[in-house]
Design brief:
Distance between the termini of chain B: 20 Å
Helix content of chain B: 55-70%
Radius of gyration of chain B: 18 Å
Largest sheet of chain A: 2 strands, antiparallel
Oligomer: heterodimer
Order of helices and strands of chain A: HHHHEHE
Number of strands of chain B: 0
Radius of gyration of chain A: 53 Å
Shape of chain A: flat
Structural class of chain A: mainly alpha
CATH architecture of one domain in chain B: Orthogonal Bundle
Largest sheet of chain B: none
CATH superfamily of one domain in chain B: RNA polymerase sigma factor, region 2, helix turn helix motif
Number of helices of chain A: 5
Shape of chain B: globular
Strand order of the largest sheet of chain A: 1-2
Largest interface: A-B, 40 and 61 residues
Helix content of chain A: 40-55%
Structural class of chain B: mainly alpha
């Protein structure tokens, strides 16, 4: 309801300002004709507008003000001209300095590009190409202490593992020892009663 | 019940050169063309600044600064015909910033440009409003001054956009399109700001209506 009232009041405000379309104006006039409260709202808006407009602007000697503004602009223009003349005066030496710098840089560059090349030394020292190496440390092979009787290969390692068919298992294969060495007899320093395994 | 005209009379008459023509000539270096623009808009500029600041001396300084700034920035004005709205935007911004900082420069003495009663009243009021200061009856003048101060106080309580919309459209009767250019918003938004401002002022000034 409050929102509805606000919309009507907004329309009344626009009606007062004469900014409504013809249809909308007729609609508002219909509402005003039927509702004394809305007519009161319109009157309050109208009184407020008149009150605000009655607050007069100070008396000013307008011709004097425009002359004062004109004088201030003259001062501003004078100041700008002074700044510009400094720039013009500076511009001569500054452009000379800039031109001299460009010539200097160009001369050095040309001398570098067109000047005599350094002669190559007869026996240049050839440095060997640097080789990147990777050292991988792993567990040492356990060698049996007794006489070696058999050697069992338990899986491909090394070059076998690089075969394309075994590539998916390469990690597992490389993690295992490639062979097992078996020895017979008891190590001399071990006691006779000791179970061999 | 006849509603008032939406867009009041233009500042320039049909015979006078348009704002766009004067701006073009001023940009070409013709100082007199800009003087014509000053004469055309100085009253509006002083009025807007005065209603935003409530002090005639400050309003004169702001007006002078605004014209200087406008002259220095003419090349940045995109639509030459929109000079009025653009100038009022400069006046409004300078006035609102002045209120915040209370700092400005004065290149030339401006007090002697005010009418004698205005200058006295400004001094007496300590920078307050001098509403109807030129009235012959002292009682009436005092009442008018008090009323002016009440209006100024009420206006100062509005948010900036609403205050500007009320000052430019309702009080100064600038065309809504020009107000929209000044506030950099749509015409519909101007209508809404005017309405909201009026609603608040109705509450604040209830006993005077």
């Amino acid at each position: 309801m409050k929102k509805f009232d606000e919309q009507i009041e907004f329309a009344i405000s626009q009606y007062l300002d004469g900014t409504l379309t013809e249809d909308r104006r007729a609609e508002v006039e219909g509402l005003l004709a039927d509702d004394a409260h809305l007519r009161g709202v319109l009157e309050e808006h109208r009184s407020l507008t008149e009150l605000l407009r009655s607050d007069r602007v100070p008396e000013v000697r307008w011709e004097g003000l425009s002359k004062s503004i004109s004088s201030a602009m003259d001062l501003e223009l004078e100041e700008r001209t002074r700044r510009a003349s400094w720039w013009i005066r500076l511009r001569g030496p500054m452009s000379l300095a800039a031109a001299a710098s460009v010539i200097l840089v160009a001369g050095i560059s040309l001398r570098y590009l067109l000047g005599p090349r350094p002669t190559p030394t007869p026996n240049p020292i050839v440095t060997p190409p640097q080789v990147n190496s990777l050292i991988v440390q792993g567990p040492q092979e356990d060698r049996p202490e007794g006489r070696q009787v058999a050697e069992i290969s338990i899986g491909p390692g090394g070059s076998y593992a690089k075969e394309s068919g075994l590539a998916p298992y390469m990690d597992e294969i490389d993690a295992r020892p490639a062979r097992v060495l078996m020895a017979s007899g008891i190590a001399p320093e071990q006691p006779a009663t000791a179970f061999p395994f | 019940m006849e509603p008032s005209a939406s867009d009041p009379v233009e500042a320039s008459s049909a015979a006078a050169p348009s704002d766009g023509q004067l701006v073009g000539r001023a940009m070409a270096g013709e100082r007199r063309a800009f003087d014509d623009l000053v004469r055309r808009y100085q009253r509006q500029a002083v009025a807007v600044s005065y209603r935003l600041l409530g002090n005639s001396h400050d309003a004169l300084e702001i007006t002078q600064d605004a014209f200087l700034k406008a002259y220095g920035s003419l090349s940045t004005l995109q639509k030459r015909e929109a000079f009025g709205g653009w100038l009022m935007r400069i006046v409004s911004n300078l006035s609102l910033n002045y209120r915040r900082s209370r700092k400005t420069r004065s290149q030339l003495p401006l007090d002697d440009l005010l009418g004698p009663t205005d200058a006295q009243q400004t001094e007496l009021a300590g920078g307050g409003s001098d509403w109807m200061a030129a009235g012959s009856d002292p009682v009436q003048r005092l009442q008018g001054k008090e009323l002016g101060e009440r209006l100024q106080q009420a206006l100062l309580q509005l948010p900036e956009k609403q205050r500007l919309a009320i000052v430019l459209f309702t009080i100064e009767q600038m065309p809504q399109k020009q107000v929209a250019e000044t506030l950099q918003c749509s015409v519909e938004a101007v209508k809404w700001h005017v309405f909201q401002g009026r609603k608040k002022l109705r509450e604040l000034l209830k006993e005077l209506l």
